[in-house]
Design a protein that fits this description.
Two copies of one chain form a homodimer. By secondary structure, the first copy, chain A, is α/β, with parallel strands linked by helices. Helix content of chain A is 44%, strand content 16%. Chain A is built from 13 helices and seven strands. A seven-stranded mixed sheet of chain A has the order 4-3-2-1-5-6-7, sandwiched between helices. The longest helix of chain A is centred in the N-terminal third of the chain and has 28 residues. The radius of gyration of chain A is 22 Å and the shape is globular. Chains A and B meet through helix 9, strand 3, strand 4, helix 10 and helix 11 of A and helix 9, strand 3, strand 4, helix 10 and helix 11 of B.
Chain lengths: 334, 334
């Protein structure tokens, strides 16, 4: 090998290493809403391990798949899942078209403002509310309904728009991963078409990377134009065992990074962890009743059971303490 | 505005225009298996219209979605769908584990080499064959079975491997579109997990951009490790009205470019055509019995009905004549 060629190779290697270091430093700064410490460092170390070319844990860019739960992981979920708040508001908005609801549960209780009684009917009552408020429209109409709701509805505790209730450290983490070639996906129990209208702006996640629960839809002609109509029938529930099933169906690759916050995410983390090579599994722990909420095994929303905590410890999954690891929770925090 | 700033702006515009022109020229050269003429030009013109910044038909990169049917559009489909050839080979391979098949239709006829009698049982017989050969394994096992089959099975007419029976002009078209920022998807009636093991290498389409028919799957633990098992139950048939439904579910954006070759693609083209702004709809016409096959309205495989031809003419969808528009059909052609 000619010495000039050797020189060129060395130069390339040094420049490459410098560029990488610069990127890591810049990106670490991009995680500015994270407190320095073990948790932030575990993310930086993992990203470094999988992206240094020639390293033993190197992962090619197309395989850098990261999956994020949404409710309680990317945005808040208390005092009730925001999609349920949407559904309840829709019941009120649609009540005048449904005079029969005054006599019919769960709608009658809801319209009297008694959410607890309305939901006492369990799964069946909930499904009736979901179908009455999420089906019947075309996909285009539903998108507009979601957008209009987000533009006006306010969170009961903070008075903020729901799409402002997103975790700033997570927005930074998503951006950080993408800067290193990761493809970031939402894998949520929430409805796909409830998320798509706002998640691209909120998280930088495009519609085709939103995986969630779905109702069936039907292609049909309306006034000579094709539409897709939303039917009052469950297609898929993207929760628990459904999450790895949906990941396989929509992505067809096993993620190397997975992050959730509740029992519904256990199988997704388990599926991610069972692959070969370097991977990172994380769980957000809501332990911050000052800036957000503190809840765990006894909460009906976002249950983080003792069994999940035991699994997290046994498998060395990383816990994110909202209180200790996050410098800031929401962008609107000082 | 300072004159130096004006100068910079002009320079930037000129450089931009030059860069664009160079890209168009290079890319047109990339379509080298296409004969010059109206069809090739319609592709080049369309791509130019949607990608010139500031042009009235400009489409932002994330919205440049192109959907391709697979059987008969990206690869051949005669004398039978290749996935059916796979299924028939699997029946033979599995026969020793199923002694009961000797007496049971449609398997008995198949094992005697009488495909016609086996398939005379219609949809029901076909489903029995599909489920017996596509379900029961884990997703990982099935991927290996598909890879092993592709490595050995040969097309009855050309003697080539099935994944060599891909249309070279289409491989170039996919590459050309991607060079202009398009995201290219398969939207096929074929099975997702039958396509994923080979389409990335063949077409440059990654697993997460493969939409197709699916059977149900189930997450379960096996020897302490999670697996996804394929169940003998249809989940979704991605054909006809199913195509726009799946496009909405998986992509969540309406394509601006759609290409198919048979009646199963009509609704996909219709859905694509009904959006606002510039769009291109194309249909491959198999009229080349010398280099490939010639078939149309009377073919059971890849039916191109007179009604579809009438719609194509009425809506000015572009017909691709395999005989006239393609300089070469397969990469192995001289």
């Amino acid at each position: 090998m000619k010495s000039s060629r050797i020189h060129n190779l060395i130069t390339a290697a040094v420049v490459g290493a410098l560029a990488f270091t610069t990127t890591v430093v810049q990106a670490a700064d991009a995680l500015r809403s994270w407190n320095d410490g073990k948790t932030k460092q575990s993310v930086i170390d993992f990203v470094k391990r999988v992206s240094v070319k020639g390293g033993k844990d190197f992962v090619p860019v197309p395989e850098r798949v990261a999956v994020f739960d949404n409710d309680g992981t990317l945005w808040a979920e208390q005092p009730m899942y925001f999609q349920l708040a949407f559904a309840l508001d829709r019941v009120k908005a649609l009540a005048s078209q449904h005079p029969e609801w005054k006599e019919k549960e769960p709608f009658a209780s809801l319209l009297k403002g008694d959410v607890r009684s309305a939901l006492s009917g369990g799964e069946k009552a909930l499904m009736e509310i979901v179908m009455a408020t999420h089906a019947g429209t075309t996909t285009g109409e539903f998108e507009k309904i979601v957008r209009d709701w987000l533009a006006t509805a306010k969170h009961p505790k903070t008075g903020r728009r729901y799409n402002e209730m997103i975790y700033q450290p997570m927005v930074e983490l998503l951006r950080y991963l993408r800067a290193f070639g990761f493809k970031t996906y939402i894998v949520s129990g929430g409805g796909v078409e409830f998320m798509r209208p706002w998640v691209e702006k909120a998280y930088g996640i495009p519609p085709e990377q939103v995986i969630g629960s779905t109702i069936k839809t039907k292609f049909e002609m309306r006034d000579g134009k094709p539409v897709i109509r939303r039917l009052p029938e469950v297609d898929f529930i993207d929760d628990k065992e459904g999450k790895p099933v949906a990941i396989n169906k929509f992505i067809g690759r096993r993620p190397i990074f997975a992050i959730g916050n509740s029992d519904g995410d256990y199988e997704m983390l388990r599926w991610t962890a069972a692959g070969d090579g370097a991977r990172l599994m994380m769980l957000v722990h809501h332990d911050d009743d000052k800036r957000e909420y503190a809840y765990g095994p006894t909460s009906k929303v976002g249950t983080f059971s003792d069994a999940l905590m035991a699994q997290a410890k046994k498998n060395s999954w990383n816990l994110i303490s909202m209180k200790d690891d996050w410098k800031r929770v929401f962008a609107f925090d000082k």
